Amino acid sequence: MQFYNVKIIKSGHVIEIYFYEKEQARGYTPKKNNPSALDQGETEDRRKDNLNRTKQNLRRIINTNSKELQKFITLTFKNNITCLDKAHYEFEKFVKRMKYRLKKVIAPRVLSMLQL
What's the average pLDDT block by block, 10 residues per block, for the chain (116 residues)? Predict the structure, then answer.
C-alpha cells in the first residue's frame, strides 16, 4: 500500500493542490457501515458531501474538456414536474432526439429539482 500527503489534480488549465497533515493511503477502501445504524443528521451530512463531490467532479470534467464544451443549456418544463424519474425519462428522450437530428451531442447530465 502506498501513502501520500500531497495530491495534485490537473483539469484543463486549473491545477488543484491538496496538502494533508496525515498521510493518506492509496487503494484503501474502508469497511462499509450499516446505513440503518446512522442517525438522520449523519445521513444528511453524507448526502451533502456526496452532492459537493459530484459537483466538484463535474466541474473538473468541464475544465478538462473546456475547449470542446463551449455551450450550456438549462431546460425547464412547461408543467411543474415534481417526480425526478419522470424528469429523467423526458430528458433522456430529449437527448435521443438531439442525437438523431444533430448526429453528435455531448450531454453531461445534471438533473436537479428546483424548490419554489
Answer: 88 87 84 65 84 84 68 74 84 81 66 61
Find all residues with CB under 8 Å of 2, minimum gap 6, and list them.
25, 26, 27
Give the torsion sign (CA, 77, 78, 81, 86). negative
> Smallest Cα–Cα separation from 10: which of 64, 79, 80, 88?
64
Whose cell is 438522520? That residue is: 40
- Residue pair 55/28 in contact (Cβ under 8 Å)? The answer is no
DSSP 39-105: -HHHHHHHHHHHHHHHHHHHHHHHHHTTTT---------SS----HHHHHHHHHHHHHHHHHHHS--
